[in-house]
């Protein structure tokens, strides 16, 4: 028995515009810190007293061109990103903030939706994430924006993945750990040695969720070129989140996909949206029954057309017969020849033919005179009402009933024909001509009447068989035409089959060369970082490997890292891999936990006074932050006066 293929719908992520929250007296009077996880994909913001961030939105903005005072849409205000993708703006270059006009728009959105309504200032400490090894110039502009534009009292910076690591190891002292951060634009391997971020041995890979999404989009657009416009970047991102997973051993799994049964069982079929063509739902029972009603009306119309043609033919033949009859009465010599041309052998036979034609013409005229009423009925109404399509809900059942009725009528006609052969020999004589039937001297009137009734019934059966044959013929013509026009499944045409792509797309983190990036993969980078330490420190780092970041939500990342560590670490050495419970929110939760410690805020926050004295790039180091490396002061250009020789004009030299 063939298994039913499961069809997956496209992941749809409905977003609602962020609501404006109340700014209570407790919030306005107390300087409760605001935690902002300024990620390159999602921005998370909220009060430090909240369990979860109040605001979670895509860190992008869009402003319609051509409007001077048009409002800029931010994050969840954009209901459909694809319709305004060409207008989207982000403050990031890779994972570093460079466009501070967009960043200001994002901060306006955050503070306004948190309900802050103080005039000209945000009187709350800010805890904000920044990129690993964030350039001093970028931090300087961010501090300038916060202190000069929003007049915040103090600000603390930290790295998102280190905050996530802190969320699980806040109480550990002298901590060793290896943080694997899987981000939107980049991935990082960050060693933590004795509770301090060892920035000198940290490594970055310029690949992330964005490159995975772009890779999948291009593969599917190449594979299904007819649906290239429907395969958008947003849909590719959703497909990765819903259908992709990491492979514990990529090459072994690729070989398994060579097996047809395995590939069939593990392929995911995703349905793209489409508009059904009119009339394409021929498999629908109600639609088929509607066609059966139309079919019967068409058969009825055909029958009336045939009757009209038969009437015209009979009237023409009647005129010819009457003309020959006049020739016979006038004794014309050509009468015998004309009689033979009509197929008659005697005047009596001609007279019988004229009577029959008159009878047929009267019958046809009576039928045609009621044509309007008859056309509104079924050709089965007067003798087989049980076959009316209104009594059925399934076209196939109705068709079988018509076939059964046709067999029943055909058998009855055969029986009548057999009985008629016995009764045609009346008194030992056989009625073989019209003269025998209507004027023969041997026929008994009672027997002739019985024979005529038998003949009429036989003709009725013949007519009924003809009607049923026409219905069956029209049915076959109608539905064979429909099957020809829609021989393919339209829904199936708009389906995407995700086979090997399910493991091929996430594999780019471990093999960046698959997308043309000539860099080491994640496993090689981990091995490279560990190799920079002595064996004892290597062991401590390997025993506390922590995975975080948005890509960590893709299934089996933990198992893949474990397999890679098993391959690279010495025989029987121990290692431990821990996956963040919520890779998207753990960085915000870790920053919140860090900010709840008043000592951290007092000790590691940069105040406005320190900002003015030490510069905007100033940073106080802590467990979750970058290292502050002060750049040398720029050399000032001064004018040096020199004494020129006598008679030479004095010039100023710049040193």
Automatic annotation (TrEMBL):
Q: Where in the cell is it found?
A: Nucleus
Coarse class of the protein's main subcellular location: nucleus
> Can you tell which superkingdom this protein's organism belongs to?
Eukaryota
Q: Name residues in a coiled coil.
A: 347-374
> Would the keyword Nucleus turn up in this protein's UniProt record?
yes
Pfam families tied to this protein: Actin
UniProt keyword annotations, A-Z: Coiled coil, Nucleus
Q: Which InterPro entries match?
A: Actin, ATPase_NBD
One GO cellular-component annotation of the UniProt record comes to: nucleus
Determine if Cell cycle is one of this entry's keywords: no
Spell out the family assignment given in the record's similarity comment. Answer: Belongs to the actin family.
PANTHER family for the chain: ACTIN (PTHR11937)
**Listed name of the protein:** Actin-related protein 5
Species the sequence originates in? Caerostris darwini
């Amino acid at each position: 028995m063939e298994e039913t293929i499961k069809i997956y719908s496209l992941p749809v992520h409905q977003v609602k515009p962020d609501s404006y929250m109340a700014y209570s007296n407790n919030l306005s009077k107390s300087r409760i810190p605001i935690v902002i996880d300024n990620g390159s994909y999602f921005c998370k913001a909220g009060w430090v007293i909240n369990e979860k961030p109040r605001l979670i939105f895509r860190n992008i903005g869009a402003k319609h061109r051509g409007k001077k005072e048009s409002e800029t849409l931010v994050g969840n205000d954009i209901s459909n990103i694809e319709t305004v993708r060409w207008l989207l703006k982000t403050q990031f270059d890779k994972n570093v903030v460079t466009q501070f006009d967009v960043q200001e728009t994002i901060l306006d959105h955050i503070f306004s939706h948190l309900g802050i309504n103080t005039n000209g200032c945000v009187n709350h400490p800010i805890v904000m994430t920044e990129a690993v090894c964030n350039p001093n110039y970028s931090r300087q502009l961010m501090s300038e924006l916060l202190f000069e534009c929003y007049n915040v009292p103090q600000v603390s910076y930290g790295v998102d993945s280190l905050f996530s690591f802190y969320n699980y190891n806040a109480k550990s002292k002298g901590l060793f750990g290896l943080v694997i951060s899987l981000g939107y634009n980049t991935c990082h391997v960050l060693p933590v040695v004795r509770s301090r971020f060892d920035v000198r041995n940290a490594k970055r890979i310029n690949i992330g969720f964005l490159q995975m999404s772009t890779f999948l989009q291009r593969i599917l657009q190449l594979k299904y070129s007819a649906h290239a416009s429907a395969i958008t970047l947003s849909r590719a991102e959703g497909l990765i989140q819903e259908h992709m997973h990491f492979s514990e051993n990529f090459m072994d799994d690729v070989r398994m996909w060579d097996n047809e049964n395995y590939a069939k069982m593990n392929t995911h079929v995703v349905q793209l949206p489409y508009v059904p063509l009119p009339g394409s739902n021929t498999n629908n029972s109600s639609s088929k029954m509607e066609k059966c009603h139309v079919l019967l009306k068409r058969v009825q119309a055909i029958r009336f057309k045939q009757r009209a043609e038969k009437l015209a033919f009979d009237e023409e033949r009647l005129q010819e017969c009457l003309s020959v009859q006049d020739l016979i009465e006038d004794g014309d010599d050509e009468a015998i020849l004309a009689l033979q041309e009509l197929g008659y052998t005697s005047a009596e036979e001609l007279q019988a033919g004229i009577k029959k034609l008159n009878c047929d013409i009267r019958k046809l005229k009576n039928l045609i005179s009621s044509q309007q009423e008859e056309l509104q009925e079924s050709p089965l109404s007067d003798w087989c009402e049980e076959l009316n399509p209104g009594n059925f809900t399934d076209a196939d059942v109705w068709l079988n009933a018509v076939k059964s009725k046709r067999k029943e009528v055909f058998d009855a006609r055969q029986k009548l024909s057999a009985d008629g052969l016995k009764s045609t020999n009346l008194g030992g004589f056989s009625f073989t001509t019209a003269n025998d039937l209507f004027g023969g001297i041997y026929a008994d009137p009672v027997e002739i009447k019985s024979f005529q009734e038998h003949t009429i019934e036989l003709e009725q059966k013949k007519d009924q068989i003809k009607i049923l044959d026409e219905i069956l013929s029209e049915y076959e013509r109608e539905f064979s035409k429909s099957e020809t026009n829609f021989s393919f499944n339209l829904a199936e045409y708009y389906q995407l089959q995700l086979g090997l792509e399910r493991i091929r797309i996430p594999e780019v983190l471990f093999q960046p060369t698959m997308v043309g990036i000539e860099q080491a993969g994640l496993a090689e980078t981990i091995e490279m970082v560990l190799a920079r330490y002595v064996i004892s420190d290597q062991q401590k780092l390997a025993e506390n490997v922590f995975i975080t970041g948005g890509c960590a939500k893709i299934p089996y990342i933990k198992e893949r890292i474990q397999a890679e560590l098993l391959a690279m670490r010495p025989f029987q050495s121990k290692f431990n891999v821990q996956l963040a419970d919520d890779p998207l929110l753990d960085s915000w939760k870790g920053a919140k936990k860090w900010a709840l410690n008043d000592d951290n805020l007092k000790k590691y926050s940069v105040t406005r006074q320190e900002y003015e004295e030490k510069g905007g790039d100033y940073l106080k180091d802590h467990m979750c932050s970058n290292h502050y490396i002060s750049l040398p002061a720029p050399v000032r250009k001064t004018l040096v006066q020199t004494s020129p020789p006598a008679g030479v004009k004095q010039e100023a030299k710049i040193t």
